[in-house]
Amino acid sequence: MKTARLYQITRRLFLLGWLIAVPSVIATDIISAQKSSRPNIIFIIADDLGWSDLGSYGADLHETPHLDELAKQNIRFTHAYSSAPVCSPTRAAFMTGLHPARLGITIWSEGARKPDTSQKLLPGDSLDHLPLKYQTIAEKLSAIGYRTATIGKWHLGDADQAPETQGFEINIGGTRWGAPPTFFWPFKNDKRFGGEFRYVPGLDFGKSDDYLTDRLTDKAMQVIDQSEENPFFLYLAHYAPHTPIEAPLNLVEKYRQKLRPEYQHQNPTYAAMIENLDSNVGRIIEHLKKIGKFDNTLIVFTSDNGGYLGDPKGRNGIVTTNAPLRSGKGSLYEGGIRVPLIIKLPDSNRKQSIIDERVVTTDLHETVLNMAGYNSGKNSQLSDGIDLNPMIKHPSSDWPIRPLFFHYPHYYETTSPVSAIIHKDFKLLHYAETDGIELYDLSKDPYETSNIAHAEEIIAQEMKTLLFKWKQSAGAKEPRINPHFQPSKK
Q: Domain range holding 11?
């Protein structure tokens, strides 16, 4: 009787145009109903995980059964790209849906603070933080009733731009730093970074063999439980498998025993980090199933850039390979920007789907928001991504033909300052130091072995023009001549 009476009162008020005067309990019920229908969202981003580091993407030494099963039962993208070849810019691109060049964030935070001034070109200017003027995905989701938490790597600013200022209610483990001093408890020391003391905050007391990826997952499961019946957005940004290359000894020994000369991957400690990461993704999945939230949870798993190759003479040795793709982290060759991407839709009964179309990090911003029911039309902020939902939900749909742009005006172990464009079958790279260009037909030469810029001069010039017009429209910061450069006498 009370329910019927309440309905009659509500309907009468609505008909009279007085809905604004409905008691707050009714408005709360409406909001609660909207909340309960929204999917939970877990966005898992690994750090420096290469395109071929997972079994489902062709890894030989590495074992990743949980992620392979997730890919087998859901959607695996074969041509997903990070928005940048290094970490902070890609993370900022996901947070905002804007290209790193448009944001003015084109290198990792520490690199922006202390730019390399020893090279022929001074690097393009880059911010070391994500300005508060940009509305993040956490702020947007919070506005429609989501509980928001970030666990793990932040790397988008200091206290003034911390996750708590950017829409996240909870921040565990996130600082301005890009790498932990160690993966073992107490997750702090001053040994790795020239005497700079670093730590990972927000974790409990532990013991010496406690491993960071495990502890971050523990916290993630606690956050999931604390959300209760509210829809939640969990940004789980694992530090693994970034350097330092450290892993539980039992797993390292397992891969030492498994190693074979014919394998592409040859680092047993790195392989152990990958298995541990995979196991922790499996823990999240099992926990969601146990508490009845798996079906209504959107899970996205990806990486922030291509795998870090390492240095045979360095502390970590050879870390990984992105073979058969060319090069790795820092480079705009495919090995530096192609990444794994697996998406599990909420309430999905679909069988495995393999999508070969090109997608990029900024697309994930739009796609996640639309799956959550966020009305982007209310937001005047520009976006550089597209909503993938129409194509994902209707595989026969036509994919938009669009160019993808990349801009890295910095030096790295694998590159000098470079910009790139991928359009249709072709990819062009432009190197600022020499004004040189390289052109590849990815349909015939996906591993970028044959530069056809001279053979296809018209195509190369058209793509270079398009790239430069885009950089101008995005306000991309360019490198410039270093007046104090001293050429090496070697």
A: 2-32
Which pLDDT tens digit goes with each residue over 42-57?
Answer: 999 999 999 999 999 9
Three-state SS across the chain? CHHHHHHHHHHHHHHCCCHHHCCHHHHHHHHHHHHHCCCEEEEEEECCCCCCCCHHHCCCCCCCHHHHHHHHHCEEEEEEECCCCCHHHHHHHHHHCCCHHHHCCCCCHHHHHCCCCCCCEECCCCCCCCCCCCCCHHHHHHHCCCEEEEEECCCCCCHHHCHHHCCCCEEECCCCCCCCCCCECCCEECCCCCCCCEECCCCCCCCCCCEHHHHHHHHHHHHHHHCCCCCEEEEEECCCCCCCCCCCHHHHHHHHHHCCCCCCCCCHHHHHHHHHHHHHHHHHHHHHHHCCCCCCEEEEEEECCCCCCEECCCCCEECCCCCCCCCCCCCCCHHHHEEEEEEECCCCCCCCEEEEEEEEHHHHHHHHHHHHCCCHHHCCCCCCCCCCHHHHHCCCCCCCCCCEEEEECCCECCECCEEEEEECCEEEEEECCCCEEEEEECCCCCCCCCCCCCCCHHHHHHHHHHHHHHHHHHCCCCCEECCCCCCCCC
Look at residues 364, 393, 422 and tell me which one is the last residue of a structural domain: 393
Considering the domain architecture, whether residues 325 and 435 belong to the same structural domain is answered as no
Q: Is residue 486 part of a domain?
A: no
pLDDT digits over 249-307, tens only?
999 999 999 999 999 999 999 999 999 999 999 999 999 999 999 999 999 999 999 99
pTM for the predicted model, two decimal places: 0.92
Q: Is residue 386 domain-shared with residue 420, that is, in the same domain? A: no
